[in-house]
Structures are given as C-alpha cells and as structure tokens.
Design brief:
Layout: E1 3-7, H1 11-26, E2 40-45, H2 50-69, E3 74-79, H3 80-84, H4 89-92, E4 98-100, H5 107-114, H6 116-122, E5 125-126, E6 149-153, E7 155-156, H7 167-171, E8 175-176, H8 179-191, E9 196-200, H9 217-228, E10 233-236, H10 246-254, E11 261-263, H11 271-277, H12 283-296, E12 301-308, H13 315-328, E13 332-337, H14 355-378, E14 384-392, E15 397-401, E16 413-416, E17 425-433, E18 438-447
Parallel strand pairs: 1-2, 2-3, 3-4, 4-5, 6-9, 9-10, 11-12, 12-13, 16-18
Antiparallel strand pairs: 7-8, 14-15, 14-17, 15-16, 17-18
Length: about 450
C-alpha cells in the first residue's frame, strides 16, 4: 500500500514527516506523490494557533473524500492537533481511522500492521507522554522532497514557559540531540546533495542546556560548519534573545559558511506586555542586543516575529511596538495576532483585545515593515550575492534565495539566466528590488 503524507505547520513538523515517510517505506509502505494514488493518507497537523487548527481541520475534511470515494483505506491524523484535543477529537472527526499524538508517530506502523487488533488494544487514538518519544537519530531514514535544502532538527520540546505558548504541553520539555549525532546527520545530508542546512528547534539557541558537558549552540554550529565545508550554507532559525551569546556572534563573523542571518522572535517591545507574556527581557535589553549583533557581525540580516493583541495590550503598548519596529529596521518581520484558547495561561489574563483591533494593529505593523523592507532591498541594487537556485521556470528565468533569505518565510530572488539546475549556487548582480523580493542577472562565470 502506498502512503501519502500531508504536512502542515512548522519546519519541525516537516522533519517528523520525512522521518515517518522513511520509516514506513522501509516497512513496505512506499510513498505516493498525490493523495489520489494512496491507500494510506497521513495528515501531520499543527495545533499551535487558531488559524493552524482551522487549516488542519479543513485539510482533514478535504482529504477524507479519498477515504469515502477513492482508493484510500486508512485516514490517519498525527501530530499536534490530536495531542492538544485528544478528549474531543474522536467525536469531532469520525472520518479518521486513527489519531497519533506527537510521541506516537512510530505507532502508525503498528496500526497499519495490526489494523483492528491495534485499535482494540489502544483505541483509535494514541497520545503517550510527549517526552516518551524517541529522539530522531542520524541513522533514521528520511525521505525529503527537496534535495538541495534540508532542515536539521537539533532538539525536541521546550522548557520555557511563555504564557501564550502551548508547545511544552504538546512536545514536552526540551531534549537536545547529541552533538555527535547531529554532525553525523549533517554529513549524511551533505553527501546526498544538500547545499543548505537549516538548524531548527523550538528554541534553537537553547540547544545543549539539558545535556551534560557544558556544550552550547556555538559548539554545535562550529562542529556542523567544519563537518560540511564551506560549500554548504549553515543557517540557524528560531533563536531566543536570552540565549544568544557573543561566542555565537563571533563564530558567525568568522565562519564563511555560517549565514550572517539571525531569526530571533521577540514577540513584543513593551515591557508590560513582555512581562505578561513570560518573556524575561525588556525593550532596553532588546535595543542593546540588536546593537551588539550589528556591531559584531558585519552585514548581518535580522528577522523577528511579533504578536499584536495580546491580553492587556494598550494603545500605548502598541505605539511602543511600532516605534521599536521603526527604530530596529529589521530585514524580515512577521506578525501574528494573539490566538486565545482556554488551555493557555494567557487566557486567564484580564483585558483581552478584540480580534478586529488586534488585526488592525498587525496590519499597521506590516505596513511600516513593507516600507523598511523595500528600502533595504533598494540598498542591494548593484551588489552581488550568491543565490541558491530552487525553481526553474519556462524561458530564461529561475527562482532562488540568497544567504539572507530563509526558506519559506522570507522573499525570493528572481534569476535572469539559463543553463543551471536546481541546487546550483550562482553569483547574481541585483538589478531590481521590490517590497520583499529581488531580481538580478547572473554574473559571467556564475558557478559559485
């Protein structure tokens, strides 16, 4: 039987799906590229915020049509949605044959092999304690859709306690993979043709804090950079402002293949809101942090994410946030509106902000950021950058990314030229700049 996996949500979910696909394939359940060709459909869901929950449910209902009318024999829902709503999900989604929580991905194989015997033993939903899940290892088979870029998950879970976040409940406390195992996987991925490794966790810069030996994220990044060589970009996503060290910044300035790119979600800039969020830094701390980053790393590119409409956010708090965005001039920035649910500590805070006002504030921030992004992109005109080719179009046009554009979350760079393949890295001179995207011509002798 062929298996189709639909992945929703974050990069960590993508890694889980790739490991699951490898696990099932080795057991005799090869992958299918389209749901209409599969006897098994697995939906790896996200349950982080309301929009993600809605998207997960819509996807389940859409793909359930293949269970009713197509070749699909088993419809399976995995990941964060069943983990978060395990008490109610069985009655809400009777179309689903089996639900597997965040620690139960490998139980899917047992379900497929045992069928009704498994459901009699376990029931139609299996959500063991998240910390009981085995950590991914370099030896595990991964089936990746992309050859040139790969996410490298360095830890599972989170030990912080932000009041708006459900991740510790869904994934458990932080559990870091060993440095040696991560480096081994980095080598494996590079040998398979990967040109960009993206290190991810819930709080990537917290890696190693739960391990004996005193190793830090700086030690890990150095080891990965050395193992894969200068021809492979190493990128770090999802850092935390409190665990970003000067040592890591010095390494970024030193290592040619460590992208001068930092993604540090700060969430807000009002001290009052930050305290209510459970974030243990102030606006002054953030100003100091970003000044230090820019001083230590020449041409560093900064990305952050923010939340508008958090309970208790006043107009004064919001104006502080707007002023912060104008002052910091981030290269990339995303904004979410606060998503409330009863299982969040922040649900019990006073003075909830109406959703319409939260959305208006989000739009106001993004309007400011669009102008900043356009101005920063204009400053790149005439400059030359390496670009990783990701997509070929008809004619002499391709799409790619520079080292200062992370996959899926930042803009893209249009490449005018031909004669290259997906996964090539070319040298580009920027000729056009837009709000979030760039375009340019390949420089003679384009292969980097």
């Amino acid at each position: 039987m062929k298996c189709y996996i639909e992945t929703l949500g974050c990069a960590r979910n993508q890694v889980d799906s790739e490991v699951l696909a490898g696990h099932l394939s080795l057991a005799g359940f090869p992958g299918a590229n389209h749901p209409e060709d599969a006897e098994i459909i697995v939906i790896n869901t996200c349950g982080f915020i309301q929009d993600a929950i809605d998207d997960s449910i819509d996807t389940i209902l859409e793909l359930a049509a293949y269970r009713r009318e197509g070749p699909c024999r088993y419809l399976i829902v995995a990941g964060c949605l069943p983990e978060r709503f395990q008490e109610d999900i069985l009655e809400s989604l009777p179309e689903v044959d089996f639900f597997a929580g965040t620690a139960a991905y490998f139980s899917i194989l047992s379900f497929l092999e045992k069928g009704e015997a498994f459901t009699r033993e376990r029931g139609n939903i299996f959500c063991p304690d998240p910390v009981s899940a085995p950590l991914q290892t370099a030896e595990m088979e991964r089936h990746r859709a992309q050859v040139h870029t790969a996410y490298l998950k360095v830890a599972e879970g989170c030990s912080r306690h932000c009041t708006y976040c459900i991740i510790p409940m869904l994934r458990g406390v932080q559990r870091s993979r060993s440095l040696e195992d991560i480096v081994a996987e980095a080598r494996n991925l590079t040998e398979s043709g990967v040109r960009e490794l993206v290190l991810v966790a819930q709080e990537t810069t917290d890696w190693g804090r739960d391990l004996a030996g005193g190793r830090t994220i700086c030690d890990l990044v150095r080891a990965v950079c050395d193992a894969v060589g200068d021809g492979v970009w190493v990128r770090l996503l999802y850092g935390h402002p409190e665990s970003l060290s000067d040592d890591l910044l010095d390494l970024m300035a030193e290592k040619k293949n460590f992208c001068s790119y930092l993604d540090l979600p700060v969430q807000h800039a009002s001290d009052t809101v930050l305290r209510r969020m459970g974030r243990h830094y102030t606006r002054r701390d953030l100003h100091s942090l970003f000044s230090r980053i820019r001083e230590k790393v020449e041409d560093v590119v900064l990305r952050t994410t923010l939340i508008t409409g958090f309970p208790g956010e006043s107009e004064e708090d919001f104006q502080e946030l707007l002023a912060f965005v104008r002052t910091m001039r981030f290269d990339h920035l995303g904004v979410f509106t606060y998503s409330d649910m009863e299982d969040l500590p922040s649900h019990h805070l006073k003075n909830h902000v109406p959703p319409e006002l939260a959305a208006a504030r989000r739009d106001a921030v993004m309007e400011v950021q669009a102008r900043i992004s356009w101005e920063k992109n204009r400053q790149r005109l005439g400059k030359r950058y390496p670009v990783l080719i990701e997509k070929l179009s008809e004619g002499e046009l391709a799409e790619g990314r520079t080292p200062f554009q992370a996959p899926e979350v930042d803009g893209i760079t249009y490449v005018d030229g031909s004669g290259f393949q997906v996964g090539d890295v070319v040298l580009l001179e920027i000729t056009d700049a837009f709000d979030y995207d760039l375009a340019g011509n390949v420089v003679d002798g384009w292969e980097v």
